[in-house]
Write a structure and sequence with these properties.
Strands 3-2-4 form a 3-stranded antiparallel sheet. Strands 8-7-9 form a 3-stranded antiparallel sheet. The protein is built from 3 helices and 10 strands; from the N terminus they run H-E-E-E-H-E-E-E-E-E-H-E-E. Among the domains are: 102 residues, Herpes Virus-1; 78 residues, Zinc/RING finger domain, C3HC4 (zinc finger) (Herpes Virus-1, 2-Layer Sandwich), CATH 3.30.40.10. About 2% of the residues have low confidence. The radius of gyration is 35 Å and the shape is flat. The protein is of the alpha+beta class.
Length: 287
């Protein structure tokens, strides 16, 4: 395989590196890049703030939130619902008022047509002119004509039917119904290391399983015991808890619904251990 100069385009050799470089400079095609560790949320971070939770709670679907952040989210959604409900009531009242005015105008029009028919009972000569006006502003037509300078009066404007807003609050990640009473407090077990004098937030290994003392992390599948809020590894659940369904710490009875698998972190375009690749879609070069 021969080599050629940098600007040579007539040679028979077109290497992969040159092809990739030209494709990136052309502005066409799709660029892909593997997502690094910095783009993946830690397992103990809030799904809204992306910061370590100070007062962690978890939903029934396994999404971890900081209690302050999720309560603020719920409160914001309730205020938004109250605002939309006021707009809906105002719009509904406006539609009802327009309907009453339209009904009154139709009744008035029927009465005017009846009175006009009573006055013109006498026969007219077909060749005689009745002196009727041809103006498009007579007989109330000035109110029927569209006002092209008002957007709501243009012929293309469509009547918008008011829709009552949904009162239900949905989880920002799973999309399922979210209630305050369904939030379960979570209790992480700290790693006690007297030789490590660093701050808790700086440590890479901060928590451990209270039963097996395994270090918890993004690469370790975890679960929350609903009754006590303890965070344990899925390996502990499979090998110890599922044998007799007894909590190893307080010897209480457990059921399969008391085990909530934790959803591990990920960005908006990549999921952990599923698709750690970001793609930038660009126009396709067509011949």
């Amino acid at each position: 395989m021969t080599r050629h100069a940098r600007n040579c385009t007539a040679g028979a050799v077109y290497t992969y590196h040159e092809k990739k470089k030209d494709a990136a400079a052309s502005g066409y095609g799709t660029n892909s890049q593997r997502i690094g560790k910095d783009s993946v949320k830690d397992f103990d971070c809030c799904c809204l703030t992306l910061q370590p939770c100070r007062n962690p709670v978890i939903t029934k679907d396994g999404y971890l939130f900081d209690k302050e952040a999720i309560l603020e989210y719920i409160l914001t959604k309730k205020k938004e619902y109250a605002r939309k409900l006021k707009e809906y009531e105002k719009q509904k009242q406006k539609v009802e008022e327009q309907s009453r005015v339209q009904t009154a105008n139709e009744e008035l029009k029927k009465l005017q047509n009846f009175l006009k028919g009573e006055k013109t009972i006498v026969t007219h000569d077909s060749n005689a002119t009745d002196g009727a006006s041809v103006s498009n502003m007579k007989n109330g037509k000035d109110k029927v004509l569209p006002s092209f300078w008002i957007p709501s009066k243009t012929p293309e404007a469509k009547e918008i039917t008011p829709q009552k807003p949904d009162k239900t609050i949905y989880c920002p990640l799973s999309g399922n119904r979210l209630k305050m009473k369904d939030l379960i407090p979570v209790k992480f077990t700290l790693i006690q290391d007297p030789d490590d004098k660093r701050s808790h937030i700086v440590k890479q290994a901060r928590y451990m399983c209270p039963i097996t003392h395994d270090v918890l992390g993004n690469n370790v599948p975890c679960a929350v015991i609903k009754t006590t809020g303890d965070v344990v590894t899925m390996e502990c659940v499979e090998k110890l808890i599922k044998k007799d369904w007894i909590h190893p710490l307080d010897s209480s009875k457990l059921t399969p619904s008391d085990i909530i698998p934790m959803q591990r972190g990920g960005t908006g375009y990549a999921s952990v251990n599923d698709s750690l690749e970001g793609r930038h879609e660009r126009p396709v070069l067509q011949a």
